[in-house]
Design goal:
alpha/beta; Rossmann fold; seven-stranded mixed β-sheet; two-stranded antiparallel ribbon; 53% helix; 10% strand; METTL25; SAM-dependent_MTases_sf; Methyltranfer_dom
């Protein structure tokens, strides 16, 4: 109830007076509590997928735990979406170093175009993909060798007594051929128990019986063949080729098997020739007006994806998706909310600009504005703090005191330059201030070391206040993220060509705090 939660603040001073109630209100309005998300398992089920994860190479062999978790979960979902839509092309927006792109192409044989605005990222993705392919081929080679040895072990471990029985049976059949011809019928079950026959044989089936014995032996081989092929099916198809030719050709194959193997080989060769390079890193800056055909010359029906698309890029992705008929589905996980542009944040009118927030007409009509401080708060990770990964209070304190110094000594209240990750490189507060001033291109000779330390001592006792303030921001973070994500979802709900859209929690928020995906599929009739 809004009235109950409002009592967390003093009616006259509007100051926070009930922290517990404030925390309850924040939890009440968080995305996990509102009931608007679609469970990932339900989405995969609707797409005829399997939430158990794809079998094959594990991405943690090539990336850190966080990125591995993100890539494995998202790539499985994207593959299911692509299969559902019957398409093979993926456009990865803000692809960075190509972690998701390369995994989608190698694990799922999708043709992926990774687009990033940074040429250094694109070049890095090229190099990383080249190295990854070497590892991938080595992994496939290991897989082939393991499967080959397993099959040989199975063949070698067959009981010797089966061979002896078959040999004895053949001798008995040959020696008793004349007596068998004189019998009306003979029960073969007792003669060939290892083959499991229960049919009655007539005198005319002497030759057939010998053939049945051979067939029985071949059926065991065929069963083993099917088991091995079933295992091989979990690997990319080119992992099968050498193995099938080296192992199975040593035995006679039936015509049906030969035709099947030949067709499989042709398919593999055809795919190799047409998709020799399944991942293409490209450099381009994506805006709402971007024409994908100018970047991807062979654009066809595709899925557009983005793993942690920064700031306005997430919003622009959704606009391109709704406008471009070739894009049949979208899966976008945004981040860096503090970099979003807001239409109503400043009073200046910019009629031609496309804003990152708000997107939906409902919030536009209300002139809704978050503000940079709120958007900064939305980037905080409540779940990590809840499990003991505390906020970096000391670095936040350094940054806060630095701002006081800059305002009071230099008269600077706003700057386009950033301090960045200076704290981790600094040996002391004095070192931190001097490094930061140089980054901001301010004359550090204006402030002596003693003056810097005076500021530090002046505010040191308020560090606990700063920590408490930031903890309140952390508690409020999910509520602000809700507003941004629901704005994007509502924008999709307003479009006429969308068959389904929803918010899905993809990742473990402790591993990956920005864990929600905006997913949408177009009507199949749209073209």
């Amino acid at each position: 109830d809004d009235d109950i939660f409002s009592s967390a603040f003093c009616e006259n001073s509007e100051k926070l007076i009930d922290v517990h109630l404030f925390a309850l209100a924040a939890k009440y309005y968080s995305l996990s509590n509102l009931g608007v998300c679609t469970p990932l398992e339900d989405v995969l089920e609707a797409l005829k997928g399997d939430s158990g994860g794809a079998t094959g190479i594990k991405p943690d062999e090539f990336m850190n735990n966080k990125k591995s978790h993100e890539v494995q979960v998202m790539s499985e979902l994207v593959d299911n979406i692509a299969n559902y839509c019957g398409i093979k092309q993926v456009i990865d927006i803000g692809s960075g170093k190509g972690y998701l792109s390369s995994f989608l192409s190698m694990q799922y044989n999708l043709k992926v175009y990774g687009i990033d605005s940074s040429s250094s990222n694109t070049n890095g993705a090229h190099e990383r993909n080249r190295k990854l392919k070497k590892h991938w081929r080595a992994y496939q080679s290991r897989g082939r060798e393991n499967l080959k040895s397993q099959c040989l072990e199975k063949a070698n471990d067959r009981p010797v007594e089966s061979e002896i029985k078959c040999k004895t049976i053949n001798e008995e059949l040959l020696n008793n051929a004349s007596s068998l011809q004189n019998q009306d019928q003979v029960i073969i079950q007792d003669l060939v128990p290892s083959c499991g026959f229960t049919e009655m044989a007539t005198p005319a089936t002497n030759t057939e019986t010998g053939a049945d014995l051979v067939t029985g032996t071949q059926s065991h081989e065929t069963k083993l063949s099917e088991e091995v092929l079933a295992v091989l099916n979990v690997l990319p198809a080119d992992a099968v080729e050498d193995f099938s030719s080296s192992y199975y050709n040593c035995g006679e194959l039936c015509e049906e098997e030969k035709i099947q193997r030949k067709m499989t080989s042709l398919k593999i060769k055809a795919r190799k020739s047409s998709e020799s390079n399944l991942y293409f890193p490209l450099t381009s800056c994506i805006t709402a007006e971007t024409e994908l055909n100018d970047i991807v010359t062979d654009l066809e029906d595709c899925v557009m994806v983005g793993l942690h698309t920064c700031g306005d890029l997430a919003a622009n992705m959704l606009r391109i998706f709704t406008a471009k008929p070739e894009i049949k589905a979208v899966c976008s996980v945004g981040c860096c909310y503090h970099l979003l542009s807001e239409q109503f944040e400043n009073q200046e009118e910019c009629h031609d600009q496309v804003w990152g927030f708000p997107m939906c007409q409902y919030l536009k009509d209300k002139g809704w504005c978050c503000g940079r401080n709120a958007r900064m708060s939305a980037c905080l990770a409540l779940e990590r703090v809840a499990v003991g990964q505390m906020l970096p209070t000391e670095s936040l304190f350094y940054r806060a005191v630095l701002q006081v110094i800059i305002e009071e000594i230099y008269g600077v209240t706003k700057s386009d330059r950033h301090v960045g990750k200076t704290f981790s490189k600094s040996s002391s507060f004095i070192d931190y201030v001097r490094r930061s001033l140089k980054k901001l291109e301010l004359d550090d000779s204006k402030v002596p070391d003693s003056c810097i330390m005076d500021y530090y001592e002046k505010y040191k006792h308020r560090m606990n206040e700063l920590e408490a303030f930031n903890m309140l921001k952390v508690v409020l973070a999910p509520c602000i993220e809700v507003l941004i994500l629901l704005d994007r979802l509502c924008y999709l709900k307003e479009q006429e060509n969308i068959a389904w859209s929803g918010l899905v929690k993809l990742f473990d928020p402790v591993k990956s705090p920005r864990c929600y995906a905006v997913i949408a599929l177009k009507n199949q009739s749209c073209s």
